[in-house]
Design goal:
Helices cover about 30% and strands about 35% of the residues. The protein is an alpha+beta fold. The protein has one domain. The longest helix is centred in the last third of the chain and has 13 residues.
Amino acid sequence: MPTVLRSGPYRFYFYSHEPNEPPHVDRDDLSAKFWLSPVQLAGNFGFRAHELREIQSMVRDSGQRFLEAWNEFFGIVGA
């Protein structure tokens, strides 16, 4: 699972063996999935609404970084 960003208690990553999965954010035993284009919540597993808004903002702010890491890892050229 390549980690793209750590921010406070959060770790933003994607699964290396599932190229169709969106990047995730985890904290302790909580998890959420976000689509990157456009940034949208794909699934929430324990986060409260106010924290999800904060995480979604971080995903939006780092979206280009996530896409570049994703494309580089999976060898996607020209995306």
